[in-house]
Write a structure and sequence with these properties.
This protein is α+β, with helices and mostly antiparallel strands. The chain has a domain of 110 residues: Immunoglobulin-like, CATH 2.60.40.10. 29% of the residues lie in helices and 30% in strands.
């Protein structure tokens, strides 16, 4: 009887250690994805980290700035909704967990300017005045050529 009780206690202890050890390892290969492959500047975007340890605190950051954190569920997934940067460009986003379970993953977030294209810098100059000046120069040139042609076409008086 003592042997059976010893086996049961040993089995329970072994299962208890296996259960806690599993929580210290990532569920899969850590990755980060976004709800939009090319979000517009200033729009909401959801970051999702998968493959992390169950119940791990996952910190999302970009360029050393903490964007926020979320606790991974039993499947090792954590999500955070952020506002995309106000300027267009590519930003490196990292998801990392620390403590007993260390894991990290990153992705390049490509933020688009409003309107879907690349940002065109505003120079503050107006091109219409330059176009008007060019049209005036072309018109004056054409008039001078026309007058020069008229002067050459005048008939000369016949010498008798």
């Amino acid at each position: 009887m003592k042997k059976i009780i010893g086996l049961v206690i040993g089995l329970v202890a072994t299962l208890g250690f296996v259960g806690t050890a599993a929580a210290d390892y990532p569920v899969g290969v850590p990755t980060v994805t976004t709800s939009s492959s090319s979000p517009t500047a200033g729009s909401p975007v959801t970051l999702t980290a998968t493959g992390f340890c169950a119940n791990a605190v996952v910190v999302f950051s970009s360029g050393g700035t903490k964007l926020g954190q979320s606790t991974a569920n039993a499947s090792g997934s954590a999500s955070l909704t952020i506002t995309a940067p106000a300027t267009a460009g590519t930003f490196n986003v990292t998801a990392a967990s620390t403590g007993a379970c260390v894991a990290s993953a990153s992705l390049a977030l490509s933020v688009q300017a409003p309107g879907g294209g690349a940002a065109i810098p505003a120079t503050g100059s107006d091109t219409s005045s330059g176009l008007q000046l060019g049209a005036l120069a072309v018109g004056l040139g054409a008039a001078l050529i026309g007058f020069a042609g008229l002067k050459r076409r005048r008939p000369t008086a016949a010498v008798a």
